[in-house]
Amino acid sequence: MREPVDLRRQRILAAVEARGKARVRDLAAELQVSVVTLRRDVEELTREGRLRRGHGVVHTTSSAQELPSSGTTHPEGGDRVALVVPERHSYLYEALHGARTVLEEAGIRIALHIAPQVAGAERPLVERALADGARGLLLAPRWRTPAVEQADYGWLAALEVPAVLMERRPRPGSALHALDSVCSDHWYGAHLAVEHLVGLGHRRIVFATRDDSPTARTLRAAFTEIAAAHPRIEEWAWALSSPAAGHAGPYTDQETADVPTLLRKLGATAAVVHGDVDALMAVQQLAEHDVRVPEDCSMVAYDDVVAGLGATPLTAVTPPKAEVGRVAAQLLLTRLAGGREESVRRVELLPALTVRGSTRAVDTHSE
Length: 367
Description:
Elements: H1 5-19, E1 21-23, H2 24-31, H3 35-47, E2 52-53, E3 57-59, E4 80-86, H4 90-105, E5 109-115, H5 122-131, E6 136-139, H6 146-157, E7 163-166, E8 181-184, H7 186-199, E9 204-209, H8 214-229, E10 235-240, H9 259-266, E11 270-274, H10 276-288, E12 298-302, E13 315-318, H11 321-336, E14 346-349, E15 352-354
Parallel strand pairs: 4-5, 4-6, 6-7, 7-8, 8-14, 9-10, 9-11, 11-12, 12-13
Antiparallel strand pairs: 1-3, 2-3, 13-15
Helix pairs in contact: 1-3, 1-4, 2-3, 4-11, 7-8
């Protein structure tokens, strides 16, 4: 299915906001759209006053100092930190923007590095940043599988500069267990989604998550635990949120079923889908099967980056994305200011639930 225009433009805004400025061709490659399409979107966003255009470059409308594009650095002199995040990850761009605000207010210069979608991509970027003089690091490794995650533990644990992980919680007892980290409490986010639906009378629920990131794996474990123990849930099932969302496998036929199929099989009246794009696509798939949201099925998205942009704005769990970045940056500043001997901090921030038009009470008269 073709990506909705509003969703694509929201991704463009998030990507540019994270950097401050970016080259049009780089953005087109990162967001996997044609240069012509991206230029057309940029023209419209500029007309609306949401972006500023330059020659081959697009800027935010913020008056703050602009963050350099991937791999660029400021002139010599002063403190510098490196931020390393995965490409095409709008969720983390909001955390990045929160960190950027704190660091710039402190007079810290920033070098942004975008890790491509290959295993081990972060290490050479970190090595380059340290060679360029970075005194601290904010990191969000992709970690698509537990094996890829574990492969990074050794070199990350050996870093000689302060480092803080964003939205990543290393395995307990691992070499990185004692590394500073700031995360959303995704168990609590799952709890919010379940209690909201149960409170509306839903007793049969489908959970569809990705399985290609630490957040996805945490959510699957949380939904499984909460649903299995909940006294008012009669039936539930888990599936991948999209065919491309899983790498760990193997999965059963039910676990790879699309959301409409699984809803029919279970007789479910509600679904929670991670993340927003997969949730919006699920709503479109349901419409093709004459299933209306929320009249026939309530839908909750998890991430809330673009959930509100759907034809039916989606109720969503809203992790504190920007706050994760701000707190991580503040913790890094403490370490840079001489606090390296203080106890390691593992900060968890609670998500919220943003109720919109995609959830409603079960109509008991129709059962």
